TrEMBL record:
Signal peptide from the UniProt entry: none
Provenance organism: Candidatus Glassbacteria bacterium RIFCSPLOWO2_12_FULL_58_11
Family: Belongs to the D-isomer specific 2-hydroxyacid dehydrogenase family.
PROSITE patterns: D_2_HYDROXYACID_DH_2, D_2_HYDROXYACID_DH_3
D-isomer specific 2-hydroxyacid dehydrogenase catalytic domain boundaries: 17-315
Descriptive protein name: Hydroxyacid dehydrogenase
Alphabetical list of Gene3D superfamilies matching this protein: NAD(P)-binding Rossmann-like Domain
Name of a matching Pfam family: 2-Hacid_dh
GO molecular-function terms, A-Z: NAD binding; oxidoreductase activity, acting on the CH-OH group of donors, NAD or NADP as acceptor; transcription corepressor activity
InterPro entries found in the cross-reference section: CtBP (IPR043322), D-iso_2-hydroxyacid_DH_PdxB (IPR050418), D-isomer_2_OHA_DH_cat_dom (IPR006139), D-isomer_DH_CS (IPR029753), D-isomer_DH_NAD-bd (IPR006140), NAD(P)-bd_dom_sf (IPR036291)
Length: 321
């Protein structure tokens, strides 16, 4: 078996020493590029047996023009920039890192919720501007006894549920693929979730089923004065409809870590709203999660190319060939 060449197609991290160590220990040649388009991927990733990507689009066009490609790995959980169907048809394994930041994202979601409830950012800004008046917070609900709705009930949502139960909240969840749970969580339909939740937190993947699942129609079914948190994918939300709901007071506030697109365009209707908290897709980040992400994303390619047991593969059928 000859030496494999692997390429990091793009990466905005401060350093790639962790990935370098993984590749060197495997005896791989490796390169770091900064591709932004599919044509740049085709130009700069020739000869690669594996590509590790962050944002660079690697779709059917690129896959078809990269002979010898065996594995695509992505920094992160979602694979929006990759074409799973085209890769599978070409016999290329697609890997992600689904478990590196579960605790971090769940904590961030809960932090956004508590900030919205307790008006921490609002009161901080008021105080730093020279004020000293708790009443500027306006309505502040008590968290105990309130109903938290979880749209999606995977691993991260379960951790959010555990945190909420510790705050003595009632927890509901909607997920058509989950039929039972060992937690003190009530599994309900979508309409019931929307109608009963004081706080709604989104934890669904972005699919054809879930795109803009939060829209004018679903927002109308929510309680007046409810709070919305999204640490999943920006595409789950119709941002114009959400902006209208926030301006009209239908929702009391929203905490978002994700938008569509990112970073936001200048005319995004959500920007500048006083009852919105926005963070820059940072919920995944902690010192520990960042290192874990980099090591596992690189390790994916080593496992596929060396025939080792592959922990994280989204199209395992190609591994059997």
């Amino acid at each position: 078996m000859g030496k494999f060449k692997v390429i990091i197609s793009d990466c905005d991290h401060p350093a790639v020493e962790i990935e370098e160590k993984v590749f060197q220990e495997a005896g791989f040649d490796w390169e770091l590029q900064q591709c932004r388009t599919e044509d740049e991927v085709i130009e700069h990733c020739q000869g690669a047996a594996g590509i590790l990507s962050q944002y660079a689009p690697i779709k059917a066009k690129a896959i078809g023009k990269l002979p010898g490609l065996k594995v695509l790995s992505r920094y992160g959980v979602g694979i929006d920039n990759l074409d799973l169907s085209a890769a599978t048809a070409a016999g290329v394994a697609v890997c992600n890192v689904p478990d590196y930041c579960q605790d971090d994202v769940s904590t961030h979601a809960f932090a956004l919720l508590l900030d919205l409830v307790r008006k921490v950012t609002l009161l901080h800004n008021h105080t730093f501007a020279g004020g000293w008046d708790f009443s500027r917070a306006g309505s502040v609900p008590r968290t105990a006894g309130k109903t938290l709705g979880l749209l999606g009930f995977g691993a991260i949502a379960r951790l959010v549920a555990e945190k909420a139960l510790g705050f003595r909240m009632r927890v509901l969840a909607f997920d058509p693929y989950v039929k039972e749970t060992d937690l003190a969580v009530e599994l309900v339909g979508l309409d019931e979730l929307l109608g009963q939740a004081d706080f709604l937190s989104l934890h669904a993947p972005l699919t054809a089923e879930t795109a803009k699942i939060i829209n004018a129609g679903t927002l109308a079914k929510m309680k007046t004065g409810a709070l919305l948190v999204n640490t999943s994918r920006g595409g789950l939300v119709d941002e114009s409809a959400l902006a209208s709901a926030l301006k009209a007071g239908k929702l009391a506030g929203a905490g978002l870590d994700v938008l569509s697109p990112e970073p936001p365009v200048a005319d995004n209707p959500l920007l500048g709203l006083p009852n919105l908290i926005l963070t820059p897709h940072s919920s995944f980040f902690s010192n520990e999660s960042f290192a874990e992400l980099k090591e596992k994303a690189a390790r994916n390619m080593v496992e596929v190319l060396t025939g080792a047991k592959v922990r994280y593969c989204l199209n395992r059928s190609v591994l059997q060939v």
